[in-house]
């Protein structure tokens, strides 16, 4: 069985979980909440703008 299949499920989308570790995710969320432009976050973290909005939404409801 692959490592991906064994990875615990969470509210974080699988593709993002593969690209960002916990520290990077926290940095992304802090920067987004601080008003860093979304397109700068897209370039820095390699995720889509839509993904950033989804992560912010998931973090606000958690």
Automatic annotation (TrEMBL):
Protein name per Swiss-Prot or TrEMBL: Resolvase HTH domain-containing protein
Lineage: Bacteria, Bacillati, Actinomycetota, Actinomycetes, Glycomycetales
């Amino acid at each position: 069985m692959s490592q991906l299949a064994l990875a615990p499920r969470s509210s974080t989308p699988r593709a993002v979980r593969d690209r960002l570790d916990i520290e990077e995710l926290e940095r992304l969320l802090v920067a987004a909440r601080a008003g860093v432009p979304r397109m700068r976050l897209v370039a820095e973290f390699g995720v889509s703008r839509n993904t950033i909005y989804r992560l912010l939404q998931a973090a606000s409801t958690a």
